[in-house]
């Protein structure tokens, strides 16, 4: 045995199998109760000045809230621990590759966080006189200039708060443009079968009928089907490009031509703009409107599910109908237009996601025109590298030709192995990676959509591919339990989603008295 | 480029593995005519120093709320956010994770959402709350759409105290969907006017308390009357701290609550990102928009949380979904929840009382200014005053003198005939000396 001269062992004496811990904790990973179970009913973690002695709430009479609200409080140290412990149960891009296809999980530069927290951006009110926020308006204006230049379109609506909100903005602009021409007969929006769910949901939300366009065997829009379905009843098509199969729509200019010939508009879902930013301008492809997910292409943090930001670039035909408010150049500097008779309306209170604008602009300035182009190239290179390596062990959905920023596989290679896409994904968790997007797009059976982004090193890509190859080897070796039971090493095993949906428990409630007695 | 890890050698090796001779081959599907031969006409890569200089320069051209006396409200409020809130939301595992699609490795986010939903349900006095929407205004619009689905009716009535931006947001979305929206003319204390506008087609009435003018209203009777007519009552609140002092919307019979949560945990940020609070009665749950987090167990029987009831949502139901919303406002909801956990009921009640006391002090001070008439009868932390002249130029003059004196109604509703009305809010961040300073400055401008 190795030991120091003081007799302290420096190596484990023997290998002992792992017993379960007595508390349920797993080393650094603590199991954390809900704040409602921590018992801080009379506690607070803030020190506020006393309420003035002469304060009486009698002026509010019946309006006063007298019943207990039922909100626990925690001291600051308890609060910090609670949330740090919870945070450790999350995967994150800062920890490892996070290859969710269609989500563009790239590195979030911390400079952007620092900039967004400058009081000059974070501590200004949306309704201050415009004379006191000239820097904020200038930032929005400059960011708009970058977005217009990168997309080759003449206008941009900045206020939409996320991608789906941007889709709504684009479709409302399209509706307004048709109406302005007196064309009110268009009640249909065409959407490819491979589209994000938000596309048909958006169109239906504002009353359009949704009709699906078929897909060709090579994963693109079927032009013949599109042409057959276009007509005077079609208001717009919504096409994602690069599409959700990770492929560039080769015939995109023909799609635009046919659409325009039918009097309809071409809405492009810009979720995958990261693949082409700086190399291709959607305006050159015939696009009339496209939202840009600042939280994807321009790296504002995903934050566990928002906030996002979804500015929408618009063609000259749609620009007059952009929603208020928008920044203008007035005689005394920048101004805000809050009322415009041609505008289709307003997407939200105030001026959009300013905090996200600052981050996205810092990201753009950091990269520059050359860096953004390089980012798109590296994103596409990384995806093709994964596709090349993993095509040896998995079945690519579209083997011929390159992909763009994401590589799509189907579950053909898992047939008769007893392992499903879901099982395979859960086993990836045990190996330390977040799984790729599963079962989307719907046009591919058992889809696995892998988007590495440009901020992954070759070493991390190799680590990921080595892991997938090893798991694929385990599939071939018939090691099915490894997959069926996975994950074994995550903060939780597989969760029962059926039970969650059957009897929804959507908030904490006090345990019944007998339950307490039984403990 | 500091964010791009690939070296030229890496790129060459990877192209070789792929079997491509250069990067252009990977873009071969792009039509030749649409391929840019070089970078677009924008500046090139810059270091941290240059970017920081540039943005700090822009930031300096804005007057911050903390620089001097500040009384702006009207839907966005300045409160003290504890330092630990901003520190915790920048934990990598919260900041750089995404929607919890793989619940086994997203329990941190999911448990936070479950706690958030519980806090919001309790604050609003409702049965259930969702995992947040974009902001208060879009939450209100989603509320109207939901009421239409529940009642299968197509008309919405908006109260005279509803924030004009909220009314416009609702109108934009609802009218596009084929609903009729009747927005009653702005008035300071007349929420109950919605009652006269209810008819057999009315899906909902939207009332706001405290309203645009700060007026707090007991809307119990409005809710009763609405339901008697087969309509729902949607209660809007733009100042979430008011839940600590005023009767909850749930206690007053709200069917849907759409509120702005920015006041708790989140800064002003020039209007966004904020966090929409959305709470409903359990019986209408399946028509609710947005993400819902629910409790369940894992394969070992341990408690865990998942996104649930997703058959309402766009990624499953596509054109039959209750809403097109996908992303919500996760990190802002986290900030809200952390701040709420720090406050607890004790802290929230004290914070709310302090806010009300400050607004009373503001009212008392402004009542002494010659020519100023306080209009708001009952309020939380915000009041409306009538000036003897148009409010907007007065605000401009005061801004030039270092005071951000509030929001002229004309800024929000230029044609409402309320050009002489000014909205002012006071919070725990408002020193008494600033209230005195404002009174003196206002007296001088009006003299």
H/I helix tally of chain B? 14
What is CATH's topology name of the largest domain in chain B? Aspartate Aminotransferase, domain 2
Helix content of chain A: 25-40%
Weakly predicted, low-confidence segments of chain A: none
Strand order of the largest sheet of chain A: 1-7-6-5-4-2-3
The N- to C-terminal Cα distance of chain A equals 46 Å
Largest interface, C-beta within 8 A: A-B, 202 and 204 residues
User: H/E element string of chain B?
Assistant: HHHHHEHEHEHEHEEEEEHHEEHEHEH
- Compute the CA-based radius of gyration of chain A: 27 Å
Structural class, judged by helices and strands of chain B?
alpha/beta
Largest sheet of chain A: 7 strands, mixed
Number of strands of chain A: 13
Number of strands of chain B: 13
Largest sheet of chain B: 7 strands, mixed
| 3D shape of chain B | globular
Terminal-residue CA separation of chain B? 59 Å
Instruction: Round the mean pLDDT of chain B to the nearest integer and report it.
Output: 97
| Share of β-strand residues of chain A | 5-15%
Text of the CATH class of the domain at 112-365 in chain A: Alpha Beta
Number of helices of chain A: 14
Would you kindly provide a written description of the structure presented here, covering whatever features stand out?
The complex is a heterodimer of chains A (519) and B (447). By secondary structure, chain A is an alpha/beta fold. Chain A contains 14 helices and 13 strands. Chain A has a domain of 254 residues: Aspartate Aminotransferase, domain 2, CATH 3.40.640.10. Chain A is globular. By secondary structure, chain B is of the alpha/beta class. Chain B has 2 domains: 116 residues, Aspartate Aminotransferase, domain 1 (Alpha-Beta Complex); 256 residues, Type I PLP-dependent aspartate aminotransferase-like (Major domain) (Aspartate Aminotransferase, domain 2), CATH 3.40.640.10. In chain B, 37% of the residues lie in helices and 13% in strands. In chain B, the strands form 3 sheets. Chain B has a 7-stranded mixed sheet. Chain B has a 4-stranded antiparallel sheet with strand order 10-11-13-12. In chain B, strands 8-9 form a two-stranded antiparallel sheet. The longest helix of chain B is centred in the C-terminal third of the chain and has 38 residues. Chain B is globular and about 80 Å long. Classes of the chains: A alpha/beta (519), B alpha/beta (447). Chains A and B meet through helix 1, helix 2, helix 3, helix 4 and helix 5 of A and helix 1, helix 2, helix 3, helix 4 and helix 5 of B.
